[in-house]
Amino acid sequence: MDVKELLEGVKAGTVSVEQAESQLKKQPFEELGFAKLDLHRKVRSGFAEVVFCAGKKDEYLVQIFEKLYQAEGEVMGTRATPEQYERVRTVCPEAVYDPVSRIIRIDRADKESIGSIAVCTAGTSDIPVAEEAAQTAEYFGSHVERFYDVGISGLHRLLSKLDQIQRANCVIAIAGMEGALASVIGGLVDKPVIAVPTSIGYGASMNGLSALLTMINSCANGISVVNIDNGYGAGYIATQINRLAERR
Predict the structure, then answer these.
(1) How many CB atoms lie within 10 A of CB 240?
(2) Number of C-beta neighbours around residue 50 at 10 A
(3) Burial class for 44, CB neighbours closer than 10 Å (0-12, 13-18, 19+)
(4) Residue 248 CB: number of other CB atoms within 10 A?
(5) pTM of this structure
(6) What is the DSSP string of 151-177?
(7) Residue 139 pairs with which residues in a beta bridge?
(8) Contacts of 150 (CB under 8 A, 6+ apart)
């Protein structure tokens, strides 16, 4: 239960003052020995802690998921393997796994989505990173519209969706190869563009470094750039922008 729900419960009489006091007295993190779960992160930043699954021991991952789910009523993990998902299901049978984005999620049933974020990819090979971005934004309560395979080698594909893309509060542009998609979109919309370089391409793409350098050096205004393949970071920032736009 988050602080707002707790206070609403006290106001409605469903939570006693003593129960609320007990909840608020809990330390802002839970000590697991191998991890310190930041249970107050949502209070500070508006976003609960998300689990980066890659490299974690199975027993650590299972305990972290179980504790976060108990505390938040929802939980998300990124860069997970199918084997990790099967382990998580032993304690969180409600969890679902998407093999494209490699995300494990348990969502609240009453979750609402607000605003609009456009997620665009240059090619279909960029979709795994795009889905990490899109599903991150959806998990955090944003409405997402997907525009895949609209790269500049066939500019008419992008232009056919331009009206819809321009209506979004924020655009995520995901591309490998030379990474030019972000510059093109940046020159066509009046909203912030978050560029995500991907490690897709031939040898001289240097596992995404070429796309990263193109995006950083873009002459289009209003573009910010996250790290190579960092769909999660893009989805997070896009949600912050989307929330501000809707609040306004």
Answers:
(1) 16
(2) 19
(3) exposed
(4) 6
(5) 0.87
(6) -GGGHHHHHTTHHHHHTSSEEEEEE-T
(7) none
(8) 120, 121, 122, 157, 158, 161, 181
End-to-end Cα spacing for the chain: 27
CB-facing half-sphere around the CA of 205: CA atoms within 13 A: 17
In single-letter form, the type of residue at position 25 comes to: K
Q: Take residue 217 and report the two structure tokens written for it.
A: 């050096």
Provide the β-strand partners of residue 104.
Answer: 77, 97
Neighbours of 14 (CB within 10 A): 10
Structure tokens at 66: 């179980």
Q: Is the pLDDT of residue 4 over 90?
A: no
Task: Give CA–CA dist 190/118, Å, rounded.
Answer: 13
**Above pLDDT 70, what percent of the chain?**
96
CB of 208 closer than 8 Å to CB of 229: yes
Which 3 state secondary structure label does DSSP give 118? strand
Size of the chain, expressed as the number of residues it contains: 248
Question: Phi/psi at 162 (nearest 5 deg)?
Answer: -60, -40
Residue 16 has pLDDT above 80, yes or no: yes
CA gap 190, 210 in Å, rounded = 26
Amino acid type, 39 = L
Query: What does the longest C-alpha to C-alpha distance in the chain come to?
Result: 64
**pLDDT over threshold 90, residue 30:** no
**Per residue in 170-199, pLDDT tens?**
999 999 999 999 999 999 999 999 999 999
What are 21's two structure tokens?
């006091």
Report yes or no: 223 and 215 within 8 Å, Cβ to Cβ.
yes
